[in-house]
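User: quick one, sequence for these tokens?
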């Protein structure tokens, strides 16, 4: 048998054994010398995924380097660069594949050094699970916090925390418990996700593949058992909204015209109506052609992440960089068809950037932006804040340096079709490239898409309409100064009940107040909106515009909204006016809100029916600038209303 035939036979044998198994993409991260590469080497060795010649070469290099004495340095299985082996650190992202009887794996061994944070972020961008390593001797460090933040930022919803080198800590259970508690205290400040903390020795293999006799007090699963059994949302992308970035318009003959690409999210069926964005033209799907040699020539249905060619029943202007989406998602069934899943088409948006360039980022610089199959010119119009990834606090910044992470506003030369990153990764991410060198300057995650709505494009073009009734006359008539009270808090914190109690107190006092409730808005003015970050922001913006009108008439507006984003609340204050805006935080904790759950939103989230729930899979920015914070899980609505009344009196807003 020829070498080529033997290779083909081996490939076919491997595909027959493993081709139909689930694929889990995961990464390892942690400090320098925490043992990431050693852990991966141990997994490869124990699952018999290392060819004999490679293992022999690693054993030879281990003896030459002497990094582990007479033992084999398993880190050499992934630290492939000469510089990495000489320094004993990981510099680039090393990808490896292996398989067990249950599952296939694609792993990324990412750098631990702060200098290579950008490489770590690259490895995390496609992962579904993160293994965060912690040296048992050193515990939680700033780099641990950094990697926990970045993996959370990039939407990785499952994490295994491997407390490594327990052999060097004498397998001390109290030390493990101390490290575990310290990490979970850090994790409490991040969006909720599942953590599994395991004591291990990657060098010796304890609790990596087999249970360790050195730690009889630990009865949980090993690292490999977790990797094999934790749920993989293999169909998660297929359950999302339909997004098809067009890569190429195909016309091989006069009677065939199709649009080729990879389905980024959702599914599409023959006969359904799609919209070509940004043009807005509609057409029906006539054929779904699968050009894969092993595929079905024509399909009735296709889903993410399949690569297909779609033909339409009529001629439409569509080319590379355009996106096909379902025309009327609300007419279909399933969670992918909810109205909130419609994409945003805009040339202005907010994003979180991971800055990867040695040259600092300054506002106004021009870049090439690559978003899926679309490329366009982009400008960073404003740096909003920089995030301290060791404290998770945001602060104003004038520039970004290498490895900085923060929020910015961008403007593009052509409108982009996008979703928030946490909803659809493929359409919510982009890269910025230097226009001269073509080097990647930053990776971006789209967080919010409604800046244009909050801005005033008609400023200076509209004549101000003045009333013949003065503000002083209204104050004398009503015995109050106009103010908007924004009640913010998690769903279930009691915002609506407190708003009605406050309205009652003001009414009994002879004052005039109107409640603007988030759910009531959705039944009327905002019935066209869903629950994405952009739609939540737009719902709140409309409410604030209404509140501003009420204030202009001398009335008090009481707004009850989750309002999860600090930036959006700041826009509310700017829109209403600092002297007419009061922010009250109803600080009921998530556990209480989940228990109460009046709208059943948390139950639906746990069942996968709804997504983008603040405090669950999107962050809730706890207000640091609230005029009043109330533990609404400990106080009833009337007591909360009384305390707000006291605040209004102290501010001389109610006479």
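Assistant:
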């Amino acid at each position: 048998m020829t070498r080529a035939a033997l290779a083909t036979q081996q490939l076919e044998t491997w595909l027959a054994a493993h081709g139909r198994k689930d694929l889990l993409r995961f990464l390892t991260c942690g400090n320098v010398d925490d043992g990431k590469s050693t852990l991966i080497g141990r997994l490869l060795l124990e699952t018999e995924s290392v060819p004999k010649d490679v293992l022999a070469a690693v054993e030879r290099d281990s003896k030459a380097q002497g990094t582990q004495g007479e033992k084999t340095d398993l880190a050499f299985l992934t630290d492939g660069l000469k510089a990495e082996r000489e320094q004993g650190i990981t510099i680039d992202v090393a990808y490896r594949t292996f398989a067990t009887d249950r599952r296939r794996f694609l792993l990324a061994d990412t750098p631990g050094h702060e200098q290579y944070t950008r490489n770590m972020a690259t490895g995390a961008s496609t992962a579904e699970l993160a293994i965060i390593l912690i040296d048992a001797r050193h515990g939680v460090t700033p780099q641990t916090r950094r990697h926990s933040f970045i993996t959370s930022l990039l939407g990785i919803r499952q994490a295994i925390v491997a407390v490594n080198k327990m052999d060097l800590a004498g397998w001390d259970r109290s030390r493990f418990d101390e490290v575990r508690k310290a990490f979970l205290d850090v994790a409490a400040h991040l969006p909720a996700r599942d953590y599994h903390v395991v004591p291990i020795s990657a060098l010796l293999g304890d609790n990596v593949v087999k249970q360790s006799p050195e730690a009889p007090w630990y009865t949980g699963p090993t690292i490999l058992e977790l990797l094999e059994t934790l749920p993989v949302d293999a169909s998660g992308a297929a359950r999302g909204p339909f997004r098809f970035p067009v890569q190429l318009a195909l016309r091989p003959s006069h009677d065939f015209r199709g649009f080729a690409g990879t389905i980024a999210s959702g599914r599409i069926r023959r006969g359904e109506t799609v919209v070509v964005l940004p043009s807005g033209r509609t057409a029906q799907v006539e054929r779904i052609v699968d050009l894969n040699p092993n595929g079905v020539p024509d399909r009735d249905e296709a889903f993410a992440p399949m690569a297909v060619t779609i033909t339409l029943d009529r001629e439409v202007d569509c080319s590379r960089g355009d996106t096909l989406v379902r025309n009327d998602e609300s007419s279909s069934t399933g969670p992918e068809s909810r109205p909130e899943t419609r994409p945003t088409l805009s040339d202005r948006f907010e994003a979180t950037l991971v800055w990867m360039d040695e040259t600092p980022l300054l506002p106004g610089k021009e870049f090439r932006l690559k978003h899926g199959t679309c490329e366009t010119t982009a400008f960073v119009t404003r740096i909003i804040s920089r995030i301290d990834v060791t404290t998770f606090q945001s602060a104003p910044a004038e520039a970004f340096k290498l490895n900085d992470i923060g929020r910015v506003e961008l403007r593009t030369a052509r409108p982009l079709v996008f979703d928030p990153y946490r909803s659809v990764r493929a359409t919510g991410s982009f890269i910025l490239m230097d226009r001269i060198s073509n080097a990647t300057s930053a990776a971006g995650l789209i967080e919010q898409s409604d800046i244009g709505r909050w801005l005033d494009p008609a400023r200076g073009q509209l004549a101000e309409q003045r009333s013949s009734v003065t503000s002083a006359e209204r104050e004398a008539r009503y015995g109050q100064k106009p103010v908007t009270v924004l009640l913010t808090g998690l769903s279930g914190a009691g915002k609506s009940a407190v708003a009605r109690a406050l309205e009652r107190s003001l009414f009994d006092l002879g004052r005039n107040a109107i409640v603007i409730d988030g759910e009531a808005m959705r039944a009327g003015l905002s019935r066209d909106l869903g629950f994405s970050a952009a739609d939540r922001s737009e719902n709140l913006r409309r409410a604030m515009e209404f509140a501003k009108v009420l204030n202009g008439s001398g009335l008090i507006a009481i707004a009850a909204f989750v309002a999860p984003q600090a930036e959006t609340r700041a826009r509310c204050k700017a829109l209403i006016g600092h002297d007419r805006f009061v922010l009250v935080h109803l600080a009921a904790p998530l556990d209480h809100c989940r228990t109460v759950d009046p709208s059943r939103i948390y139950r639906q989230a746990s069942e996968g029916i709804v997504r983008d729930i603040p405090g669950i899979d999107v962050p809730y920015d706890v207000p640091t600038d609230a005029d009043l914070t109330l533990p609404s899980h400990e106080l009833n609505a009337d007591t909360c209303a009384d305390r707000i009344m006291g605040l209004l009196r102290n501010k001389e807003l109610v006479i």
